[in-house]
């Protein structure tokens, strides 16, 4: 069972932890070997969306050609047409949380990946996000997490936005939360979150306050280091 102590910080960490499961789902831990093939170079005529060339993606991300090959194989297996819509994205995440409802958190995460706001996540969108989360600097990763929780993208996190995030995490964890969630618990954690993050007490958390507070939290920093050698 998951204790609710410190859940306000889990809101920062959970997006990172989920990607271990996502990478397993997309085959990131399969061995890579053999010669490059046309398929590995994204030269596919059967997909609805053909990614940019591998060389260009290698320049734009912090992944090697081999890593991009492995990612693409897994992405194509899950999304044969080359893009994933929100409903399919939610279905993928629901596999990891059968005892809860991950749909709302998956919605927030999908919005963060769908940088073009066209209702779909392409392979490029996917690897750009992963490159930041797995290979970016601490500031890059925290900026990405801040953008995830800044739901209306106005440059600050409000208590209402953080409450929506907290509720989505409770829903996602389902019966694994302990003690069983009471209606007022998410709001209590939001207040605790703001006590730590809202440095000037103006009722909102800016990206500067968010990054500064996270860098001072030992648990967050240690958790981020776990991703330095994932692939």
From TrEMBL:
Keywords: Calcium, Cell membrane, Ion channel, Ion transport, Membrane, Metal-binding, Potassium, Potassium channel, Potassium transport, Repeat, Transport, Voltage-gated channel. InterPro entries: EF-hand-dom_pair, EF_Hand_1_Ca_BS, EF_hand_dom, Recoverin. GO terms for molecular function: calcium ion binding; potassium channel activity; potassium channel regulator activity. CDD domains: EFh. SMART domains: EFh. One of its GO terms (cellular component) is voltage-gated potassium channel complex. It is found in: Cell membrane. One of its GO terms (biological process) is regulation of potassium ion transmembrane transport. The keyword Cytoplasm does not apply. Residues 101-136, 137-172, 185-220 form the EF-hand domain. Belongs to the recoverin family. This is Kv channel-interacting protein 2 isoform X3.
